[in-house]
Design brief:
This protein is of the alpha/beta class. Helices cover 39% and strands 13% of the residues. It contains 15 helices and 14 strands. The strands form 4 sheets. The chain has an 8-stranded parallel barrel with strand order 1-2-5-8-9-10-11-14, surrounded by 5 helices. α13 links the parallel β10 and β11. It is globular. The N terminus is likely disordered. Bound molecules: phosphoenolpyruvate and manganese (II) ion (MN). GO terms for molecular function: 3-deoxy-7-phosphoheptulonate synthase activity. Its EC number is 2.5.1.54. Belongs to the class-II DAHP synthase family.
Length: 466
């Protein structure tokens, strides 16, 4: 991978600069906040956020800084980021099975990417808190009845009736508790036997094994098992290597609701810095990245790594200004710029963005979200995405980085371990429009199923290796 000369890599401790002048955890109140629910009872909101502020953090500063350190490595070209999970998590799926299913497919993809590319893969889930959704319209009308849009379980319920759709501040507290429960399972699974490399075959589910990608995965898993056996035959005590038996999955979500994030923003005396403790990585969505908006203001003051979604309306000047606001100290890996430009457009739109950011001296992780620029409504009426568009955008992403000499640092995917039929395409077991209704279960955007996700990981690994 060729890289242009880059700024020196600082450790996160070196680069924990103070928040911008005038920033406090409440300074976002002086800025307009897009995409906010209209809570019928502001007193209830205050009561809930006061309660939340007394709860323990969900993640700790030390873990957040570990992720920052790993992302600094990715930004410098020494790794790859896999950020993946549901579009909208449901409270009801924060169960052992729900978490295990998502972890399983993320582990599979990560091992395919690592094995195929030889690069370490940093794993970040859209998990344990991805409950809030920005919407293109604040209301939804069905048969002449207009109700508030569903904004995710953290705000209201999806059922189309006035009681469900009314924003309910108590849901913020429920979101906290469901995140906490999901994290508890996640920590147990990643530290216990489930994430052991010796389980690489067990991550492949029966339904996936039948697909072309599933069979290819079995072959890779055989090779990995063989490599482990080879290492022990050579005398390497593989049993004593924690890296082979445990893994780390960091958490992330869109920081859509500043009131929730503020309640979990905590000062760390030891590190003299503020941290958002609802997840390791927080991102700003394409609809809430206004330079003078509340979301940018709040996140500018926390030391977490920050994601920013970069949609097709982002100009190089916009992006440069955002980077200046969120990364004034040019800290490698502070920012994860997640481009979601659309197949057929990203080849033209991406290079000027890469150049603008590089010329301004930032060293972000560049990640490709090939999902959100490629959504459309199928003739059968389902919101969907074509696997071919998704792989095309990934190809354009790698192409633009090769052209500009920057590192194509990661993928940002909406997927599930379940055998759903939400996105079109796939080798052998192709999902066509008429089949979308069979298992269309998403609470928001269409997700790749496990076989489609694996197919995409194999293709990406091939390009990374080339
Ligand atoms: C999302 O990631 O689910 C999302 C809403 O993305 P974006 O902000 O890029 O539209
Ligand atoms: Mn989505």
């Amino acid at each position: 991978m060729t890289l242009l000369p880059t700024p020196p890599v600082l450790t996160p401790q070196d680069s924990l600069a103070p928040p911008p002048h005038g920033w406090t955890p409440t300074s976002w109140h002086d800025h307009p906040a897009a995409q906010q629910p209209d809570y019928p009872d502001p007193r209830a909101l205050r009561r809930v956020t006061e309660t939340l502020a007394l709860q323990p953090p969900l993640v700790l500063p030390g873990e957040i800084l570990d992720l920052r350190r790993e992302l600094a490595g990715v930004a410098a070209g020494d790794g790859f980021l896999l950020q993946a999970g549901d579009c909208a998590e449901r409270f009801a799926s924060c169960t052992e099975d729900g978490v295990r299913g998502k972890l399983r497919v993320i582990l599979q993809l990560a091992i395919v990417l690592t094995f195929g590319s030889g690069l370490p893969v940093v794993k970040v889930g859209r998990i344990a808190g991805q409950f809030g959704k920005p919407r293109s319209s604040p209301t939804e009308t069905v048969d002449g009845v207009e109700l508030p849009a569903f904004r995710g379980d953290i705000v209201n319920g999806p059922e189309f009736d006035p009681a469900s759709r009314r924003p309910d501040a108590d849901r913020l507290l429920r979101a906290y508790h469901h995140s906490s429960a999901a994290l508890n399972v996640l920590r147990a699974l990643t530290l216990g036997g489930f994430a052991d490399l010796g389980q690489v075959h067990a991550w492949n589910q029966e339904s996936v094994r039948r697909s072309a990608a599933g069979r290819r995965y079995e072959k890779a898993a055989d090779d990995i098992s063989w490599a482990l056996r080879f290492m022990s035959a050579c005398g390497v005590d593989t049993g004593a290597q924690p890296v082979l038996h445990q893994t780390r999955l960091y958490t992330s979500h869109e920081a859509l609701l500043p009131a929730y994030e503020q309640a979990l923003t905590r000062y760390d005396e030891h590190r003299r810095a503020w941290f958002g403790t609802s997840a390791h990585l927080l991102w700003i969505g394409d609809r809430t990245r206004q330079l003078d908006g509340a979301h940018v203001e709040l996140l500018s003051g926390v030391a977490n790594p920050l994601g920013v979604k970069v949609g097709p309306s982002t100009t190089p000047e916009d992006l440069r200004a955002l980077c200046e606001r969120l990364d004034p100290h040019r800290s490698p890996g502070r920012l994860v710029l997640i481009t979601r430009l659309g197949a057929g457009r990203s080849g033209d739109l991406l290079p000027p963005l890469l150049r603008a950011v590089r010329e301004a001296g930032h060293l972000p992780v560049w990640a490709c979200d090939p999902m959100h620029g490629n959504t459309f409504v199928s003739p059968a009426g389902y919101k969907t995405r074509r696997l071919t568009d998704i792989t095309t955008e990934i190809g354009e992403f790698f192409g633009a980085h090769a052209q500009e000499g920057t590192h194509p640092g990661g993928l940002h995917l909406e997927l599930t371990g379940d055998d759903v039929t939400e996105c079109l395409g796939g080798e052998l077991d192709e999902i066509v429009d008429a089949r979308l209704g069979t298992r269309y279960e998403t609470a928001c955007d269409p997700r790749l199923n496990a076989a489609q996700s694996l197919e995409l990981a194999f293709r990406s690994a091939e390009i990374l290796r080339a």
